Amino acid sequence: MSILLRNISFLDIENEEIINNIDIYIEGNKISKIGKSLDVDATEIYNGENKLVTPGFINAHTHLGMSYFRNYADDLNLMDWLNNEIWPIEAKLNAEDIYYSSLLSIIENIKSGVSTFCDMYYEMDRVADACIETGIRGVITRGLTDIDGKGEEKLEEIDELYKNYNNKSNGRVKVYPAPHAIYTCSEDFLKEITRRTNELYDGILHVHLSETLTEVNDCKKEHGMTPIEYVESIGMLDSHVIAAHCTHITDREIEIVKDKEFYPVYNPSSNLKLASGFTPVQKLLDNGITVAIGTDGDSSNNNQDILEEMHIGGIVNKAVEMDEKAVKAIEILKMATVNGAKAMGFENLGLIKEGYLADLTIFNLDSNSFTPRNNLISALVYSANSDDVSCTIVDGKFIMKDRQILSLDESKVRKIVNDRWEDIKKR
Ligand SMILES: [Zn+2]
Q1: Nearest to 422 by CA among 92, 171, 177, 119
Q2: What pTM, to 2 d.p., does this model score?
């Protein structure tokens, strides 16, 4: 199988520019050649006129199984929201509920140009199934807690998950452990997960960290340290850490993490909506830290639209820093592509470059958002929206073409999710 994107404009992230009238040749699951008027034999030729191709976007922190809670419990404090609204109803979800919610979330992700998600939830074997069936790339991280006394069971479950799904579907699925947060895991449990991460799971883990002031203050009270100082003290930072939020990261913590395999994931909508605070993105970037971006789940965002996240993320830090130059559009594009790929542990993903995985997003330039054609890098962050995404390619295959998801019937999935939600509320 080979695809030739003929005469297309593309976003060259490394050189921070848009290059016009280029051919991109995809062979198997890789970008094989990039150049002018390529003379190649392709199974499929895609006309790139009025189209712009970017690396596929990477949604580096989400909870796909939470679609049911969209617009269900809003305008509440994080701890009230979790303890009194989300966790009681979440406990009623079964594996099939989570599978269909994941399908719906994956549809939303693909339609905004996401080619890789990083999910933290449970019943992750069914999330992995949804990933495999829809053709998207997925980082499947099992949320782990031991406050319910069931830590050991969950560790056994992730062993099984790793055995059955890691590197499945041509390496499209990755499985990592995810200690949920420092306030839902005991110290011994966090140490055990870290030990297993390094021994059994490629050395990569995913965690919520320093999300709210309550978390920071409770951590100081209990351990005499801030959250990142605490996880360093128990050895977690010797692993590759995908750290969602880092809203309250301090200067001292930045010093601790800046030379480590530590990847903060910025979730601006969730942080704004839950009034959690503002991740100091420009300061992190200035310190050479690789920052990724994610939507978080539908209950705190309330959607899976990475382009909306990029837009909000791109403008909010300017206001917070009182600096128009903070977090430029190209930085946001790096966060959503090459930085996200590094955070996920991929070496050949996130750029349009020969030898890289062919995960690509194609925009329709014949749209209001791109008219007139001034700076297209600005347009991608400040004016584009999901309707402008025509196609999403993952692992060398179209998974959405002309806005049609190729693997399933969207309206059927929406109906099933609506019916299931009515049932869940009665349980
Ligand atoms: Zn989260």
Answers
A1: 92
A2: 0.97
